[in-house]
Design goal:
The chain has 198 residues and is mainly beta. 11% of the residues lie in helices and 46% in strands. It is globular and about 45 Å long.
Length: 198
Amino acid sequence: MFTGIITDVGIVRSVEERGDRRLVIGCGYDLSTVDLGSSIACSGACLTVVDKGSDWFAVDVSHETQSRTVPGQWDQGKRLNLERSLRVGDELGGHIVTGHVDAVATVTAADADGGSTRLTLTAPAAIGKAIAAKGSIALDGVSLTVNDVEDIGEETRFTVNLIPHTLEATTLDGIAAGRQLNVEIDILARYLERMTAQ
């Protein structure tokens, strides 16, 4: 479990194809406090630490994860939002995030809104019912509040605001129309959708 509060931005240092894709990710974490087998959310996808050094850790990205996340995200040189898993007693500053990506959304507009940036995004209609105004959503692992939502044909359009701190502390700095982001709907919405499915 995670909270959607990003604690570091890592960089993919190397990629090796070995059935699954093995990534070595450079980071600022104290890796002496990270055990092999630990989970780290990488731009919203929960991945398992399989090796580590003083300033890097390695993960294997399965074909399933690659198929459900932003194309090209797992390439050498890419920046990733990082969050270590939640420990009992940690502050829950965002919302409960599982690290299971539901879909990919596309930014259609990024506009100044006071001191913030207002993003307009489209996501597949299949997850649209689980996106609610004033509800929570994770975009590339970042916990955000949905401003408004509208179903339009085969897509769902929604907006979120990014405050300056979020832009500075994540990979969302410089975001513009056309960028794709990993989406995780709220865990409660996921279960409610399944329970009410006909």
